């Protein structure tokens, strides 16, 4: 059964890549549904619920407006292809020696340097690896706990990894948060959004030094654990190449942002395969049978968001009668909605889909940047500040620190500060642009 699910996932990925051909969107959406149905027994509760709601959205569209189904299937296929491409890229890169050297070297230096290197290093690694960055860097922290025990250094390292990954939805051009936001807010440009969110992400990580546990001096690391500059340069060059490909395809060739990310990631995967063949190596194909949860959440949310957007758009005649002063207030509340939903265990993809699907249709086009900032920054704070986020659960498994402690209790003050700052920024941008 796993082989069949993996094969169907590869077909869904191929359909997303060949989206310019007639019928590929339907093929991709169908394959995604089959992968989810075949993996139903192994799925968690939230992905099942999301997929059931997507099924209800399909029934609603069939009854009310069947024309909503085709664009919804296209959205489902595109975003599912994105997740499959990023998963494939993550699996390929996690095998490399460069990444192993980088992850070990992040634990070197004095407490402040170590915190910053772990936080920004995890953020950098998360651009192509997504959750894989938490597993890679978090395993180093877990090994330190097993060998030397619990200490302020390991607790600060856990904070750094969680915060470093948490800001990736705010600044990473390849993250599902950025892609989903740009998909649901078509009037928003990626460069414009990143111009505000990248500095915010850096400031959020640096602010973490305020809520930082004092450490006792420790002996310096052995030189054998230090990575030289070459692995960092190679990895940074790869990330820059992928991001450059995304911007080239989306801005120059006018491809959709999700499609551009998928093609750019697959270019890196194929390049890695060709390089292995040149070295007379033949690494095995990545097993894609374990992606049912991700496909259910991302694909189901994409379908739900498209149906909601179409239904809301069909009910609106002219501009909505909303007072001008209310838009900044709504923008200020968006990050808090993401955080509150995260505390309730609701996946941010679901909240992002509902927020973008409903508000994106009625939001003033000239001020859509304020909504986009609120969405991606709220997504990021929820990623490191709530105990049910996937990265918190991964770190709990790797380190033994309870997610409610590591994510919620240790990061609560930073989360609240980040939410206040995000509300002020989203609201101010909305006021200026209205």
UniProtKB/TrEMBL annotation:
The keyword Transmembrane appears for this protein: yes
UniProt keyword list: Membrane, Transmembrane, Transmembrane helix
Chain coiled-coil ranges: none
TM stretches of this protein: 7-40, 46-63, 115-141, 161-185, 191-212, 232-250, 256-275, 295-316, 322-339, 346-365, 371-394, 414-433
Protein name: Uncharacterized protein
Organism per entry: Marinobacter adhaerens
């Amino acid at each position: 059964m796993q082989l069949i699910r993996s094969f169907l996932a590869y077909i869904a990925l191929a359909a997303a890549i060949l989206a310019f051909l007639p019928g590929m969107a339907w093929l991709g959406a169908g394959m995604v549904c089959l992968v989810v149905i075949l993996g139903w027994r192994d799925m968690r509760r939230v992905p099942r619920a999301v997929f059931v709601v997507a099924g209800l959205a399909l029934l609603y569209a069939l009854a009310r407006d069947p024309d909503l189904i085709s664009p919804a299937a296209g959205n489902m296929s595109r975003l599912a292809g994105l997740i499959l491409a990023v998963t494939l890229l993550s699996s390929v890169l996690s095998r490399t020696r460069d990444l192993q050297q980088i992850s070990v070297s992040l634990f070197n230096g004095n407490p402040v340097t170590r915190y910053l290197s772990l936080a920004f290093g995890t953020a950098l690694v998360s651009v192509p690896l997504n959750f894989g960055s938490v597993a890679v860097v978090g395993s180093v922290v877990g090994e330190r706990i097993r060998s030397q025990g619990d200490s302020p250094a390991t607790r600060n390292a856990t904070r750094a990894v969680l915060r470093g990954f948490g800001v990736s939805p705010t600044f990473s051009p390849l993250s599902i948060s950025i892609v989903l936001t740009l998909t649901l807010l078509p009037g928003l440009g990626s460069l414009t959004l990143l111009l505000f969110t990248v500095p915010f992400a850096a400031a959020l990580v640096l602010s973490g030094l305020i809520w930082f546990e004092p450490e006792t001096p420790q002996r310096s690391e052995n030189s054998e654990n230090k990575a030289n500059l070459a692995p960092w340069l190679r990895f940074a060059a790869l990330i820059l190449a992928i991001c450059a490909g995304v911007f080239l395809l989306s801005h120059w060739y006018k491809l959709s942002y999700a499609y551009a990310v998928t093609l750019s990631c697959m270019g890196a995967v194929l390049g890695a395969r060709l390089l292995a063949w040149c070295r007379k190596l033949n690494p095995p194909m990545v097993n894609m049978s374990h992606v049912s949860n991700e496909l259910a959440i991302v694909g189901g949310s994409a379908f739900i968001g498209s149906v909601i957007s179409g239904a809301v758009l069909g009910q609106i005649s002219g501009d909505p009668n909303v007072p001008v002063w209310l838009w900044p207030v709504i923008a200020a509340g968006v990050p808090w909605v993401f955080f509150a939903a995260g505390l309730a265990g609701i996946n941010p993809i679901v909240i992002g889909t509902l927020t973008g699907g409903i508000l994106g249709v009625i939001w003033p086009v000239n001020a859509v940047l304020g909504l986009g900032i609120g969405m991606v920054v709220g997504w990021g704070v929820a990623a490191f500040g709530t105990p049910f986020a996937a990265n918190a659960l991964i770190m709990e498994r790797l380190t033994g620190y309870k997610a409610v402690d590591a994510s919620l209790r240790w990061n609560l003050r930073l989360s609240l500060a980040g939410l206040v700052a995000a509300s002020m920024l989203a609201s101010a941008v909305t006021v200026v642009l209205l």
